[in-house]
Amino acid sequence: MKKLFQIVLVSSLSLLCFSCYYDELIDRPIDIPEIPDLPENVSFSTQVQPIFTTNCITCHTSSLNPDLRAGYSYNALVPDYVIAGDPLNSKLFQSLPGIGHPLNVGFELSDEDVAIIYAWIDQGAENN
Ligand code: HEC
C-alpha cells in the first residue's frame, strides 16, 4: 500500500513538472483541447461556415474583424488568421470561444465544432 502511494506521488509530481515545462514552450499559452477523432475531407462551405453562422455573426460582420458572414469569411480568414496546415499557430484557432477568444462571449464551441475547424486548417484550409 505504501509502495502504491509512492508510485502515485511520483507520477503526479512528474506530470506536474511536465505541464510547467510545456507552458514555457508555447509563447501564447492557450488551453489546447483534446481533439477527438478528426473528421476527414472537411468542407469549408458545408461544415465550417455553419459554425460561424450559428455562433459568430451576431458580432463578426463588416465592422468587426474577422468578418465571418458567408461569402466574406474565407477571404477575411485566409491568410490573415489561418496558417494552412498549422492549426495551433493559427490565430483563428487560438481565438475560438473556449480556447482563447479575447472577449468572454459566454459560451464555448463544442468539441465537435473545434475538431471540424482544426481539421479544416490541418487539411490545407481550402475554399471547398
Ligand atoms: C458577443 C460578440 C462576439 C461573438 C459571439 C464572437 N466574437 Fe470574436 N470577437 C469579438 C470582439 C469584440 C473581439 C475583439 C476583442 C478585442 O480585440 O479585444 C473579437 C475577437 C475575435 C478574434 C480576434 C480578432 C483579431 O483581429 O485579433 C477572432 C479570431 C474571433 N473573435 C473569432 C470569433 C469566432 C470564430 C466566433 C464564433 C465561434 C466569435 N469570435 C464569436 C466579439 C465576438
UniProtKB/TrEMBL annotation:
GO MF entry, a single one: electron transfer activity
Key words of the record: Heme, Iron, Metal-binding, Signal
Name of the protein: Cytochrome c domain-containing protein
Residue ranges annotated for the Cytochrome c domain, each copy included: 43-125
Signal peptide residues on this chain, from the entry's feature table: 1-22
Residues spanning the membrane: none
PROSITE patterns named among the record's database cross-references: CYTC (PS51007)
